[in-house]
């Protein structure tokens, strides 16, 4: 289950749950912890790719006019 649902402060921003999960995934990855790289570098190397794609889809759905009827993607 995503960490977003586990007794955390609710982020009022759009796509806040996906953003928080992506951030946690990057900060807990071996790339950041063991190789001492920045989360931005690790994201470019392809770590946490599925969450990055989900976050992109959520942000893209905010610009889509059909999202008024379907709702935002992600959680």
TrEMBL record:
PROSITE patterns: CHCH (PS51808). GO terms for biological process: mitochondrial respiratory chain complex IV assembly. Keywords: Disulfide bond. The keyword Disulfide bond applies. GO terms for cellular component: mitochondrion. InterPro entries: Cyt_c_oxidase_assmbl_Pet191. Pfam families: Pet191_N (PF10203). Involved in an early step of the mitochondrial complex IV assembly process. Belongs to the PET191 family. This is Cytochrome c oxidase assembly factor 5.
